[in-house]
Write a structure and sequence with these properties.
- InterPro entries: Phage_TAC_11.
- This is Gene transfer agent family protein.
- This protein is mainly alpha-helical.
- The chain is built from six helices and two strands.
- A two-stranded antiparallel ribbon has the order 1-2.
- Helix 2 packs antiparallel against helix 5 and helix 3 runs antiparallel to helix 4.
- The longest helix is centred in the middle third of the chain and has 14 residues.
């Protein structure tokens, strides 16, 4: 599966979800927040209706579904009384977009693109570290540190 794709059951069957740059930009406009902030709102339970519904709709579009069909499917299965049940799906779609999907061939699991350990020559000959000092080793925390402030 290409980076950022997530496949899951929704409504009438299995669907591919993907948030590419265009969908992420539309999502942040609809939700008045950046994608990582939206993900944190969902995780914390402070989500807005649009955080769930728009993530699913745009994920379907990014996964290849025509916009009118994605809207109809979202409206049919993610309406009143069903939002909480789709919280996990919305967070998984966003997490795949921000951190990649399991099985992405272009990057080993748990490593960020461009992240390298210093060579022994660069640090006075001591062995190279596989984790930055003070890191918990969490990909999500490394992503947050790497993307914040710039």
């Amino acid at each position: 599966m290409p980076s950022g794709e997530y496949q899951a059951a929704f409504g009438d069957g299995e669907h591919i979800f993907r948030l590419r740059i265009g969908e992420l930009e539309e999502l942040q406009e609809k939700c008045d927040a950046g994608p990582e902030f939206i993900l944190q709102r969902i995780y914390s339970g402070a989500w807005l209706v649009a955080d769930i519904r728009e993530t699913i709709r745009l994920g379907l579009i990014g996964g290849g579904m025509p916009p009118t069909q994605a809207l109809a499917l979202r409206n049919r299965y993610c309406g009143e009384g069903a939002l909480f049940t789709h919280k996990a799906l919305a967070s998984a779609i966003l997490a795949a977009a921000l951190m990649g999907s399991e099985g992405d061939e272009d990057e080993p699991p748990g490593e960020m693109k461009g992240e390298t350990s210093p060579s022994p020559e660069d640090d006075g000959g001591s062995p190279a570290s596989t984790k930055p000092a003070g890191s918990s080793g969490s990909t999500r925390k490394r992503l947050r540190r790497r993307t914040s402030g710039g």
